[in-house]
Amino acid sequence: MIEVKNLVRMFQSGERTIKPVNNVSFELAQGTFASIVGKSGSGKSTLLSLLGALDKPTSGDVVVDGVSLAGMPDGKLTEYRRRDIGFVFQQFNLIPNLTALDNVMLPMEFAGVRRSIRTQRAKELLEQVQLDVDRHDRRINRLSGGEQQRVAIARALANEPKLILADEPTGNLDEQTGGHIIELLNSLRREHNTTILVVTHDRSLANKTDRRFRLQQGRLTEETAPKQTQGTAAAGTAAVAAAATVG
Amino acid sequence: MSVLARSVGNAFRNKIRTTAVVAVLAVAIGLALAMLVANQAVTAKVTELNASVGTTLTVNPAGGQGFEGGGEPLTVQQAATAAQVPNVTEVVGTKALRLRNATEMAAQGAGGAGGFGGQATTTMTTSLTPAVDAGTLGNRNQETGTTGSQPARTFSLPITATGTGAEVDSTGKALDITEGSGLGDYTAASKSALLGTTLAEKNSLKVGSTFTINDQTFTVAGLFDAGTAFGNNAVYLTLTEAQTLAALPGELSTMIVTVNSMENVDAAKTALQTALGTDKADVTQGQRNLETAVSSLDSVKNISLIAFVAALGTAGLIILLIMVMLVRERRKEIGVLKAIGAPNRTIGLQFVLEALVLVTLGSAVGAAVASFASGSIATALIGSSTTTTAAPGVRRATGGFPGGDPLGGANQLLTSVTASASPGVIAAGIAAVFGVAIIGALVPALLTARIRPIEVLRGE
Fold first, then answer.
1. Is the domain of B37 the same as that of B88?
2. Do B240 and B331 fall within a single domain?
3. Which of A241, B193, B272, B409 has the most neighbouring CB atoms within 10 Å?
4. HSE of B391 in the Cβ direction (CA atoms, 13 Å)?
5. Is the same domain home to B223 and B99?
6. Rg from Cα positions in chain B
7. A48: in domain
8. Chain B stretch 9-28, residues whose beta carbon is closer than 8 A to a beta carbon of chain A
9. Distances from the Cα of A139 to the Cαs of A8, A12, A91, in angstroms?
């Protein structure tokens, strides 16, 4: 269970104060596949980085399985990211001079998993995301965009996180590959009961998720009644927040 | 893939840049190591100078030195008095004999022995032929004592035989025995002798060969190398044997007094002069002549130390700038590593190892550079320093013990500074470079790792 409570993130831009995330609150039950849609600059990526502890909120809190992130020191936040979070970035953000296999093994190395175990698991994950075996030992810069995104997803799954945060996972992919990636995420969610939150412009992608949120001027609203997922029904609580303040 | 393997891989991401970085580091590290090696060599030489020659005083009979001058000879009682002077650690007495080849002496007649009106002159015959030709200077010196109306004649040079109370030369420096062994107890009578290498060669003598002095047979126990042609045209006997040959038991030509430290030399010299009496003995300080040399070496030592620190600092700065550049270039990568759960220490370790890979390569090349360059650099430093500093102080010691020109010894010591790249010194230098590299890599990596991942990722 992830609970977001009155989350606010403010930035100073010259003399102006921008609130890309403005008093956002919602809850997601474990195993939910949710999406956040919104225009560019609406604060989607900022919200995602707050949920993944890549950034700290100005106020408010994110509570994961009863543990608050707000007061956590940096070391604990790193541990939280390593143990509970899997990121899939729009730009993939893989380490270019490493092979696909090495990239997937990285989070496990940081978690202290033994080499033989992490090698085996990395191979299994790459097979699970349907990356051809002959691509496993190729350097990232010799893989296509779709292949890199699969490697990124495999890396996100490496430590069996509770929550996968995907920022425009299909943004750099063609429609067919994007569709396959979404199908892949959905199947992984079903198999591992992983909560998946994707940020997207893609309406068709959003329509395939259990719950759909819209972020507009820092305010989060849930678009329609949540699509129930078996055994993981969650009452989506759309938070109504004050309008983004422009100071 | 481990952190180490990743770091090694990262170090070679851009091969052209890696080559350039290693080349620049090699020059800086090589220079630093060469300076360290030179510094260590000069430090060792300064210590040696201070320990051996720098603390030595020479006592001659008042008014005479060696085979020249007048006055009363020194005695073993005076040596005992000298040994009681505070800070004196050792007194070595010597007895000088002048040997002339028996055949040539007979041919030249008594006039051949002229020239030196010295107080301690004891001329004896020998089967040895001198290894140094008289030449113009020798003939001129020999003729000095003859009557002016005699026609010019060709002389042979005398050979100096020195009876010594210890295995040291006339400057107090240990004899460099190149073959055979020493004479054992130098205070006991013995028919063994040490010959200079060129004298032995001239007379076709080896260890175990025999020769005569005043028709007494002596066996060559060993050969020594004094470092000069004149010094090697000499014989060393035990002190007692020389006194017996001269039939002057208890008489000394000179005393070599060793003081416990360089700081006490002046005080010991004054005390010694007082104890022996100014009308009985002249106390000279060979170290005076060497002070300039030691001072020159000290300045070389300081220069090399400063150059080492400067070169090390430069190497450190290069590493720091390179690592700052690398870290800035890979900020996004650091952000990604943090985003997927890498602790700061892992990120720091990765960049430190990467820097160490570059430094190891630079050090390997630099050590090779240092091993070739350190000798030349030390020689160049000493050469320039002695030219500018020591030269004004140079003066030839007049008279004195034959072959015992203290400054000649100093010059020899100065030029004999050999800078060899010892593994210990190189290892110490490389350890210092590694220390600098670790700090140089850790600081920018940790500073970057401390920022929030989103700040790095958003910045792309």
1. no
2. no
3. B409
4. 7
5. yes
6. 32
7. no
8. 9-10, 13
9. 40, 40, 16
A155 touches chain B (CB under 8 A): yes
- Measured between CA atoms, the residue of chain A closest to residue B336 is A93
Q: Report the number of distinct structural domains present in chain B.
A: 2
Asked if B450's CB is within 8 angstroms of A78's CB, the reply is: no
- Domain range enclosing B119: 56-260
Question: What's the DSSP call for residue B73?
Answer: P
Last residue of a domain, one of B212, B240, B260: B260
- Touching check for B340 and chain A: CB below 8 Å? yes
pLDDT at B115 (0 to 100): 41
Q: Does A244 fall in a domain?
A: no
H-type helices in B155-280, by residue range?
Answer: 197-202, 239-246, 265-276
pLDDT of residue B58: 87
SS3 content of chain B, % helix, strand, coil (to 5): 55, 15, 30
How close A166 comes to chain B (CA, Å)? 13
What pLDDT, on a 0 to 100 scale, did the predictor assign at position B447? 83
The per-residue pLDDT for range A149-178, each reduced to its tens digit, is 889 989 998 998 989 999 888 777 777 777
Q: Is residue B128 part of a domain?
A: yes
In the 8-state DSSP scheme, what is residue B164? E
Residues B173-221 pLDDT 10s: 788 899 998 888 888 888 999 999 999 998 999 999 999 998 899 999 9
Judge contact between B95 and B118, C-beta under 8 A.
no
* Domains: count for chain A: 1
Within a domain: residue B238? yes
Tokens 């969610």 belong to A189
Query: Residue A163: which domain range?
Result: 32-42+72-215
Q: Evaluate if residue A139 carries a pLDDT over 70.
A: yes
pLDDT exceeds cutoff 50 at A241: no
Domain presence at residue B159? yes
pLDDT of residue A56 exceeding 60, the answer is yes
Based on C-alpha coordinates, what's the Rg of chain A? 18
Contact between chains at A83 and B341 (C-beta distance less than 8 A): yes
pLDDT of residue B217: 92
The span from the CA of B122 to the CA of B113, in Å, is 10
Contact check, Cβ <8 Å, B453/A107: no
- Using the Cβ of A83 and the Cβ atoms of chain B, whether some distance falls under 8 Å is answered with yes
Structural domain includes residue B287: no
- Do B42 and B104 sit in the same domain of this protein? no
Q: Are residues B80 and B227 in the same domain?
A: yes
Residue A165's pLDDT is: 92
The identity of residue B199, as a single letter, is L
Q: Is B446 on the interface with A (CB under 8 A)?
A: no
Q: Of the candidates B3, B6, B457, which has its C-beta nearest A54's C-beta?
A: B457
Reported ipTM: 0.85
Same domain, B214 and B339: no
List CB contacts (< 8 A) between A76 and chain B: none
Length of chain A: 247
- A136 domain residue, yes or no: yes
What is the domain-level CATH number for residue A148? 3.40.50.300
Contact B453 A54 (CB under 8 A): yes
Residue in B336, B346, B450 nearest the CB of A93: B336
CA distances from B306 to A225, B216, B297 (A): 77, 60, 14
Q: Is B430 found in the same domain as B412?
A: yes
Report yes or no: B109 at the A interface, CB cutoff 8 Å.
no
Task: Identify the segments of chain B with pLDDT beneath 50.
Answer: 110-120, 145-149, 386-415, 460
Give yes or no: residues B138 and B179 share one domain: yes
Q: Is residue A38 part of a domain?
A: yes
Interface test with B, best of A80, A85, A87, A101 (most B CBs within 10 A): A87
